[in-house]
Design a protein that fits this description.
alpha/beta, eight-stranded parallel beta sheet, three-stranded mixed beta sheet, 12 helices, NADP, oxidoreductase activity
């Protein structure tokens, strides 16, 4: 836990979602590192290193050449990992083995597929606490879970809030998470239940008039953001340092984005990428709240496409939290994230999806 000691900071607030505010008071002292302590994260354990988001995180962590990256995987896994990653095969049902694998790690990053066992993440968090891992990045990648109305309507956001509180209740680890909106390429080419595009059949469904803007991010931008966040000093090492530190983001979401766009913006980009015109598409319009209710009813009947429909339509509510750039601001500049080109990204997404 040496990473969490060092310089003592003035009072700061730890916001527990929706209903509690816990205040931790520290004695003010010189903002210098305690002799012998580390002021950087060095060892990172990554769960899901070959997955959709995990692979991009692994790539960016390795590219910094600052971290020793360990990937946890099941004994039966046949996944191939990038060169430079230490691989530990572990039975996730063996809690003592999990704790042993996490000892000495400075951070745990959890990326899990949607079909992972329900208690998988909590087991990892508990093991991290028992192993005294100072930082945990939970499996939270998406819209703004701190938006109370959005979280209430979004079935997944409430679960993410519960995980944050669980990390805090264990009393050993601090969390950080990326608010990145829905992944752009995954959502654009994933079918009409997401951003409204059925590209193979040239059909487009606009929510309301299609002009509500939301924040969305590429997988690459998410990987870069997390790698640069974890590269920051943990705390200021002297009174003259005024740059960003990891401690600024303790138990807080980090807001990033690739694009602030509407469905209409995306559609125009798709037309360029496909070399088509509006006349060659079947265009539909649907009230966004009606679509949300439709998705909810479908999901309750066991239709998973209904879940996508309700989650995606909800972020397109006017002033409904999808545009968090306006209400929260972004940490893009703090993390020195590059500006991406919407049309190039759209073209690559359609090409890679074979559409």
């Amino acid at each position: 836990m040496l990473q969490l000691v060092g310089s003592l900071l003035t009072s700061f607030f730890l916001f527990s979602p929706f209903h509690t505010i816990s205040i931790f008071r520290f004695k003010v002292s010189k903002m210098t590192s305690r002799k012998g302590s580390k002021n950087y994260i060095e060892k990172i354990c990554l769960v899901g290193a070959t997955g959709q988001i995990g692979s991009h995180i692994a790539k960016e962590l390795l590219s910094t050449q600052k971290f020793q990256v360990t990937a946890l995987t099941r004994p039966e896994s046949t996944s191939t990992f990038p060169e430079g990653i230490l691989v530990k095969k572990i039975d996730y049902k063996d809690q003592s083995a999990l704790v042993e694998a996490l000892k000495g790690q400075d951070a745990l990053i959890i990326t899990l597929a949607g079909n992972a066992e329900p208690d998988h993440e909590e087991k990892l968090i508990k093991a991290a606490a028992e192993a005294n891992v100072p930082w945990v990045v939970p499996n939270e990648w998406g819209p703004d879970s701190d938006n109370e109305a959005l979280a209430k309507d979004s079935i997944l956001a409430q679960a993410k809030q519960k995980i944050r509180r669980y990390i805090e209740s264990c009393g050993k680890s601090s969390w950080m998470c990326l608010v990145c909106g829905f992944w752009y390429t995954f959502s654009l080419t994933g079918g009409s239940s997401r951003f409204g595009f059925d590209i193979p059949n040239r059909t487009m469904t606009f929510y309301d008039d299609g002009r509500t803007k939301i924040n969305t991010s590429t997988l690459e931008q998410c990987g870069r953001a997390l790698a640069r966040l974890l590269s920051l000093k943990i705390h200021p090492d002297n009174e003259n340092y005024h740059g960003p530190t990891l401690s600024q983001f303790r138990n807080k979401p980090v807001y990033i984005s690739s694009f602030l766009v509407s469905q209409e913006d995306m559609f125009q980009s798709v037309l360029l990428a496909t070399g088509t015109t509006e006349q060659s598409w079947m265009i539909k319009y649907q009230d966004v709240k009606e679509r949300y209710q439709e998705g909810m009813e479908e999901w309750q009947k066991g239709n998973m496409e209904g879940m996508y429909k309700l989650l995606y339509s909800r972020v397109f509510y006017p002033n409904g939290g999808g545009n968090y750039e306006e209400s929260r601001g972004l940490q893009n500049d703090v993390l020195d994230l590059p500006k991406e080109n919407l049309h190039e990204t759209t073209r690559a997404a359609i090409r890679d999806a074979g559409l």
